[in-house]
Amino acid sequence: MTVINIKLLSTFCCLIFLLSIPFVLLKANNYNLKENNEYLGKNTEVLTEVLRGAGLGFEDASKAAKAFANAYPPEMLSEKSYLIMPPLGKEINLFAVNIDDFEAVLITKKNKKFIAYITSFDDAKKIVSSKTGGLSNIDTILLLEESKKLDKENFGDLKEIEVIFDKGSTLFGKLYLNHGKKNEIRQAVREFKKIYNPAKIKIGTEGKIFISINDKLLAFYVKLDKARYLITVKTPTGYQAEILNNKKLTEKINKIHTKKNKGYSGINVTKISLFNGKHLQIKELEIKKGSNLYLTLKNTKIASSEINKLINKIEKVYNIKKVNVGQKIKVVFLKDKLFGFAIKLNNIKELQLVSSFGDFKIYLYEKSFKKKLMYTKINIEKNLYIDAQKNNLPTEIFIELVKLLSYSIDFQRDIKPLSKFELIYENLYDYKNSFIMPGDIIFSKVILEKKTFLEMFKFNLGEVEYDYFDREGNSIRKKLMRTPIDGARLSSGFGNRRHPILGYNKMHKGVDFAAKKGTPILAAGDGIVERANKYGGYGNYIRIKHNSEYKTAYAHLFKFAKGIKKGKYVKQGSIIGYVGSSGRSTGPHLHYEIILNNRQVNPYKLKLPEGKKLNKKLLKDFEKHKEKILMQYKQFNDF
Fold first, then answer.
1. Which one of 225, 233, 395, 399 has the largest count of C-beta atoms within 10 Å of its C-beta?
2. CA–CA separation, 153 vs 216, rounded Å?
3. What is the pLDDT of residue 4?
4. What structural domains and CATH numbers belong to the chain?
């Protein structure tokens, strides 16, 4: 194994020296991270030259440097970073770059292509010095291509939201549901109306909304027919609308993507944390109740000017309003000077900012992971929750399963002893094979008492968007939820009953769910709040209009969720209130009604309106994907 330090070369002479004697320890001057609270300038080119000096040709060195940059920003390499090369005389198809004595990036050449892996520093040394050099049987390395985004938030980019107009939908409603800023929407819709009447938008029409990171409505378009799109775009002088063909629409969208980054270079992704160095001092903090990001940072005795600079930089890529109580942050110091800052977004993502010549450079640290498929079979003996715990089903997977199945299954009536649940889901692991978190449900099958069964398959609709579909390719999500509350017990059904307070028989025009006071209540579907106030014996009451036919009502609430009022647009599954006992009530519960054409109907006898449907192309792709999942399911059962 040969070691070569990666150092910034101060003169062309040093480069010549490097190229002529490739395996010596470089002594050229280097910008020293240890002694300076700044990050290094871009040195992908320098890394390329170091690799050339190590024996790679120019083309190979350039490709290898680019592969490395997918794992770690080259500008963050310090004087402690160095190459780990194979023994002298051996062909260079595998080498590594030590990052911080903790982690390293393995680079391998295969079929003229260079591929990067993450591994530990110790394993990198062993692998590079190995006589075989093979990677196929090593399970402590992680191929970067396996790492995928788990959520739909893009840093340094637009948020793109696909919409489909269903019965009762309006253009204003779709925009407000996904954006929520009435003034911007009114201005945009006003321009749209100059060309086309929104009332003429047909059921099934597709569109897309573009929202900036700082929550501005940049554009939206509606597909008028096979060849025409009406797009409305924000310009310096206001919104402008025009009709475009497919080619012109693509060009316009590309311009939107370009303009959004004007004056901002974007965000760099790193697969290795920038704050692992032993020479760094890290303070881990938590946002306390009554505090905020500014006050929390102020308590670390950082100057107000530095805090403001830091927050202004963060706001370019992250909505600061999303910083919640309990959220974890890190403040990083180098020799008592502010070196960096990090805010944890979830178990695999962290926003990291590094001090840079009086400013801050932004990085998104995405922890790389590999997926392992897990199989669980649950035979119901007592109830789903207890039996799922017995089978060690992760809580996150259990909660997601209940939410997905609640569109089709009445958990109070349908699930009985001898019912069966089968699941295939993902677990995520790092390169050390340490568990990180559960991933997504891939497949589930439910067999009920009468041998009826329900299957659902996860299917990707785009790069980050996915949904769940039954065997025929129908979305398992309905337009309305039968049960808009988690963890509740059905205490009273729909129909005639003896009223618990009034003492005589009375038609019960809804269903009651007994639950603890304060249990969150969810919107059963997308819609607009028609009323949110006290309403006689119903107590605190919410009614949501979903389209021209369907409404839902929620009664006896303890309180409304923040922001819930008449005219508010809500999304399916969002919290609208909390269980209580207001009005004529004997105890905490939710009274829930589905109203069809102004008549209350039994939620458990109603055929709910269908959700998303796949088009022909996606349906064809789904069929192939379904067969692949069923093959995996068969392998688990055979095993």
1. 233
2. 15
3. 62
4. 2-146 (no CATH), 159-259 (3.10.450.350), 280-366 (3.10.450.350), 370-459 (3.10.450.350), 489-601 (2.70.70.10)
